[in-house]
Design goal:
3 helices; flat; 64% helix; mainly alpha
Length: 89
């Protein structure tokens, strides 16, 4: 019974890790150079995407992929904050 509970908990944790939303470092977009670089990179990728002959479903999937890849390259993800450990003294 205990083994089943642990296994079920681990599987649930694995499924939730895929659903976690990515937090982008939007603070960097306040800098004009970064903002312009992001806009230029995104515009160039969308122009290349629009030249391909795709139906609406493929276009939607590719557009989402273009946006996330460009954001990851130019802006980056927010650094994770270290959690403070409790001192039991």
């Amino acid at each position: 019974m205990l083994l089943w509970g642990k296994t079920k908990w681990k599987l649930r944790r694995l499924n939730n890790s895929e659903k976690q939303q990515v937090k982008w470092n939007t603070h960097d977009l306040k800098c004009e150079n970064t903002q312009q670089g992001y806009e230029v990179a995104l515009t160039n990728r969308f122009e290349a995407l629009m030249q391909e002959d795709l139906d609406i479903d493929e276009l939607t999937q590719h557009a989402a992929k273009v946006i996330t890849e460009t954001a990851e390259e130019v802006v980056g993800k927010t650094p994770k904050k270290a959690k403070k450990k409790m001192d039991i003294r």
